[in-house]
Hints:
1 helix; 4 strands
Amino acid sequence: MNVPDPAAARWKKSSRSNGQANCVEVCTSRPGIVAVRDSKNVPGTEIAVSDQAWSRFIRAIRHGELDL
């Protein structure tokens, strides 16, 4: 299995975070995977899901399908 180099990952905070530290960061630079981590705990745990699952999640948020 070809495991991507973690150092090559490109993490992005939401543009709506307004520079706040209490945010999540998302990494989409790994083929087929979207990883999410806590911006306050960068070396901590990452949650990884398939890019298809992430797309469905984002679509559900945009369409108000989740009880947030």
